[in-house]
Amino acid sequence: PDPSEKYRKNVAGKTAVFNGEEFILEETDWYLLDLFRLWWRYGISFIRLQMWVEEIMEKFMRIYKYQGHGYAFSSVEELLHSLGGSGFLNMTHRSLSESLLELGVSQRFIDEVIAPVMRVNYGQNISIPAFVGAVSLAGAQANLWAVEGGNKLVCSGLLKLAKANLIQAQVTTISPHSTQYQLNYATLTEKGSEFYDIVVVATPLQSSVGSGISFQGFEPQLPDIAGSYHHTVASIVHGYLNCSYFGFPDPKLFPFASVLTTDSPGLFFNSAASICPVNISTGFRRKQPQEAGVYKVFSPQPLDKPALKTLFRSYYSVQVTDWQAYPHYGSTQDLPPVVLHDSLYYLNGIEWAGSAMEMSSVAAKNIALLAYHRWSRQLEMVDQKDLMHKIKTEL
Ligand SMILES: *[C@@H]1O[C@H](CO)[C@@H](O)[C@H](O)[C@H]1NC(C)=O
Ligand SMILES: *[C@@H]1O[C@H](CO)[C@@H](O)[C@H](O)[C@H]1NC(C)=O
Ligand SMILES: *[C@@H]1O[C@H](CO)[C@@H](O)[C@H](O)[C@H]1NC(C)=O
Ligand SMILES: *[C@@H]1O[C@H](CO)[C@@H](O)[C@H](O)[C@H]1NC(C)=O
């Protein structure tokens, strides 16, 4: 958003998959060898997977063209359908493992490659919906980039660019008032109230998450937003990795920067990875395993002392974030609505189709367009069918 923002440089690092006892998959320095090993171990599975993900991404990318032409969608279903037809919708209702098996991907490949990626990205297993899985597999293979200084600068940069009047407060109630909405809010020191023509809620509304917002005076009542969010604990540990635990008594010989895990009973963590600063200066190098480094560990439960002492020879500090990170996916979840009321919109429903920063930006732009078109009664810009064709003939 802000042209002064820069890409953060990538720091190379190898990945391996751990099953609780040993590494079952290890990345090497040599791309061709990796390819050969994958081929040897999994046969045609990884090519099938690659083609599947590429096809889905190609269709998904249509959204940028549609949005560039100003088209908007009144539901996540309409949005997905316009990108990939009933195939995309079906993918939000079927499990990833079922879809991949049908595609001819082997069970072994699913257990040893796909499951570890789902564990690190969503803390969940291969029963999550196929569309969510495809989104996170795209993230696992493409060259992801980050903003120097941290991705949070995207948000502050956008706010600045929009010249928005930001009130930092907790919204307590939203109620309809003729054609407007009244928002009551509270800061630490005072309470306030404002009227707005259009309201966008951009926080999960599942009661188990506890947004703190109460909707009052809506007749009929607003629909309940079902489901719950999945707890993940992120521990940032400054210390010495216990390479012995991974079968490398000499840390100097430990070649991996990140460890993924299979879905094995008794494993107390989902992933562990050495992390680097938000800004990478020239000449920066990743800390070696024999040095004290900063690691990010994802786990379903907080790491207790014995767990920390298993993963780390010793450590200086541990910072724990226990949060409701992403939806707890069932395989038959309905997608939440985008339009809650005339001019009251809900962003987070998109997370149930795929939870990623990029998905949320797509949802945000969609709501901006949708709110504008509905406000100015340009309904031909909403839920249009056959957009691929329309856009071609518009040019
Ligand atoms: C989606 O599912 C429906 C009903 O199960 C089926 O009729 C349709 O063929 C499926 N579409 C695709 C593209 O798989
Ligand atoms: C995946 O996890 C869910 C609970 O989140 C569980 O019901 C299901 O049996 C698990 N599936 C597999 C294949 O382990
Ligand atoms: C990182 O880079 C950003 C943008 O270039 C800059 O604003 C920030 O001060 C830098 N932070 C650190 C810790 O060097
Ligand atoms: C490190 O891992 C080894 C092997 O699993 C284990 O015996 C040891 O207790 C662990 N912790 C430390 C602090 O070395």
From TrEMBL:
Q: Which cofactor does it need?
A: FAD
A molecular function (GO) held by this record is:
prenylcysteine oxidase activity
Report any Pfam family annotated for this entry: Prenylcys_lyase
* GO term, biological process aspect, one: prenylcysteine catabolic process
- Keyword Protease set for record: no
**Which ranges carry the Prenylcysteine lyase domain?**
25-384
Keywords, A to Z, come to: FAD, Flavoprotein, Glycoprotein, Oxidoreductase, Signal
Q: Which family does it belong to?
A: Belongs to the prenylcysteine oxidase family.
Q: Which PANTHER family match?
A: FARNESYLCYSTEINE LYASE, PRENYLCYSTEINE OXIDASE-LIKE
Q: What is this protein called?
A: Prenylcysteine oxidase 1 like
Organism per entry: Salmo trutta
